[in-house]
Predict the 3D structure of the following.
Amino acid sequence: MIKVNGIPVEAEGKTILEYLETTNYDKKRIAIERNGEIVPKALYESTMLNDGDTLEVVSFVGGG
């Protein structure tokens, strides 16, 4: 079990990219912090999610 923005999610054993493919996040307009550290987009495909990990996903919204 991991937590994404404070909500428990079954995603351990997946990469960040695999997890994102099961969501509605726009991968071009988000930033992800894993266990307190920013994950570069280039590492989404290789960063594995482990039991107990905490993700914070922030979506960028345009406007004016």
